[in-house]
Amino acid sequence: MKLEKFNSPGNLKELNEEFAQYWSNYISKQTDTSINGYPDQRINDDPREMYINQTKVGLDTDAVFKDISWIAFPRNILISTIGDKARWRKADSTRDVQDEYCEWSVERNPANNKITRVEFTCEDVFYWYHLWAQSPQLVTDLYKKHVNNTVVQEDLENPDGSYNSKINGIITR
């Protein structure tokens, strides 16, 4: 059976019908690109025949669904670093070493190195671009609710009015 459309991350209901379809079309296009790969541009990047776009190809009736077990801690750090303290220090140092969809930032008190704040993110930044295209006010309201209640729309937009995903200074104002 084919999917009618791709849902928003976490099945959130923030998108109106028009933008929910726009999101689904975007994910469908990204999925097709991932299936095809870039064999002309990258070594050993062949099409992925076992990967499907479920809005175009349905699963067989005998398809088996399995839960995915995932600890979320970056495996590359887990196997390459000795000791839990060193692992956490390395993982906390930058999001660049963390696994996508489970990223965090740690703030510490410089006087005693104790953790004062941890921020987690698991939303795809492109979802926020879609939300912004639908309603900059909605994005502003979500930032006020989840990040800092003093956020204003101007904090979140570039000079041309587009969404600024590289926001600085909002948390500490």
Structural class by helix and strand composition? mainly alpha
Number of strands: 2
Measured on Cα atoms, how large is the radius of gyration? 20 Å
Compute the number of helices: 6
Helix content: 25-40%
Strand arrangement across the biggest beta sheet? 1-2
Oligomer: single chain
- Which blocks of ≥5 consecutive residues have pLDDT under 50? none
- Biggest sheet details: 2 strands, antiparallel
Order of helices and strands: HHHEEHHH
> Mean of residue pLDDT?
88
Work out the strand percent.
5-15%
User: What is the CA–CA distance across the termini?
Assistant: 50 Å
Shape: globular
Using brief descriptors, characterize the structure shown:
single chain; 173 residues; mainly alpha; 6 helices; 8% strand
Draw up the topology in text.
Blueprint: H1 17-36, H2 75-80, H3 84-93, E1 103-108, E2 115-121, H4 125-134, H5 136-146, H6 153-156
Antiparallel strand pairs: 1-2
Please, could you describe this protein's structure?
There is one protein chain. The protein has helices at residues 17-36, 75-80, 84-93, 125-134, 136-146, 153-156, and strands at 103-108, 115-121. The chain is mostly helical and 173 residues long. A two-stranded antiparallel sheet has the order 1-2. β1 and β2 form a beta hairpin. α4 (125-134) packs across α5 (136-146). It is globular, with a radius of gyration of 20 Å. The model has no long low-confidence stretch (mean pLDDT 88).
